[in-house]
Design goal:
alpha/beta, eight-stranded mixed sheet, binds uridine-5'-diphosphate, binds magnesium ion
Length: 326
């Protein structure tokens, strides 16, 4: 190869998971490029940036569009996954491939404004190791999504061992030190928000307005969000398992008191206790409760089964633009 060997370690890595986003890539690259230029001005001269796109099994021209840009711009890199693994796994793949001193996961649909990166870098230079971006306004989301999101954060923070900040998405800046901790977390079900906040470190928060998606449509159908919510809670809390001990104890105490009452009632009045309705209610109620508890147990056991298989989080089929590719 010709030319001197230069240190190709970038300062900033943008991690961009993409699933069928052919129309979104060019506008995203253009807008984030100018934001990155301004962010790099804050850093020492010689600071560079890279985009690590993770193609999460797209079936449209996403790969070709990125490859086209990578051919013209060596800062654009691409990791192709062998199929769709979901955004959480795609992010993990990006984090593993990024080499920047600071790493920023960002959505390609421009809902995370790239201009905020300048503020993030400023906070990073001021000493923060994690810079969260908080959506001060979710008016670009549908009402249902806003309400359910609020409920979720409330429930999660009540149950989880470690709370997550409300309305902070995956968009954030993480210092290499925090990134290395995240890479060591081996769990298969990746609830990134929970993992990201679990690592701790010095956290700064920046508020921003969430914009509407620029092109294409959301890749998160309601059912997938529901699964993510359950994943998040089960991965971060054992309270749902413990509830049943207390509930069972309460019901047992209630049943015992009722038994004492029935005995005394029969002894004093000699009357026969009428029964059918109350027995049915008690039997059905307890049967339902048992099944519910079993279901909760199943959630945890199922996840243990997934974890002990120890399959890789994602499978890379090819990469483009990384040093080892040359
Ligand atoms: N995404 C992905 N794999 C998936 C689903 C989504 O890589 O299985 C990417 C998607 O291309 C986008 C980002 O994750 O860059 C956020 O997705 P989306 O905008 O659909 O989510 P929303 O903003 O509606 O929560
Ligand atoms: Mg979006």
């Amino acid at each position: 190869m010709d030319g001197p060997i230069v240190d190709q370690t970038p300062t900033l890595s943008l991690i961009v998971p993409v699933l069928n986003e052919e129309a979104a890539i060019a506008p995203f690259l253009d807008r984030s490029a100018s934001a990155l230029d301004r962010a790099l001005e804050l850093l020492a001269s010689g600071a560079t940036a890279e985009w690590v796109f993770v193609n999460d099994g797209s079936t449209d021209a996403t790969e070709a569009v990125i490859a086209g840009r990578a051919a013209r711009d060596t800062r654009v890199r691409l990791v192709n996954l062998s199929r769709n693994f979901g955004k959480e796994a795609a992010l993990a793949a990006g984090i593993d491939h990024a080499r920047g001193k600071a790493v920023i996961p960002i959505d390609v649909d421009l809902q995370d404004p790239p201009e905020l990166i300048v503020e993030m870098v400023r906070a990073w230079l001021d000493g923060a190791q994690v810079v969260n971006a908080r959506r001060s306004d979710r008016s670009s989301d549908a009402v249902v999504k806003r309400v359910t999101a609020r409920w979720f954060y409330r429930l999660y923070n009540r149950l989880a061992d470690h709370p997550i900040p409300e309305n902070v998405g995956d968009f954030r800046l993480m210092d290499r030190e925090a990134v290395e901790v995240i890479r060591r977390l081996g769990e298969h079900s990746r609830f990134n928000k929970g993992l990201f906040s679990w690592v701790g470190f010095d956290v700064a928060t920046i508020d921003y307005q969430r914009e509407a998606r620029q092109s294409g449509q959301s890749k998160w159908p309601a059912l997938r969000l529901w699964t993510l919510a359950i994943d998040g809670i089960v991965a971060s809390s054992t309270v749902p398992l413990r509830i049943w001990t207390y509930l069972g104890a309460m019901i047992a105490i209630g049943a015992f008191s009722y038994a004492v009452f029935v005995i005394l009632y029969t002894l004093t009045t000699g009357g026969d206790a009428p029964g059918y309705a109350s027995i049915m209610v008690a039997v059905l109620f307890l049967g339902g409760l048992n099944m519910l508890a079993l279901g909760v147990l199943g959630e945890y056991v199922g996840r243990i089964a997934t974890e002990v298989r120890r399959r890789p989080l994602y499978v890379v089929s090819s990469t483009l633009g990384f040093q080892e590719d040359n």
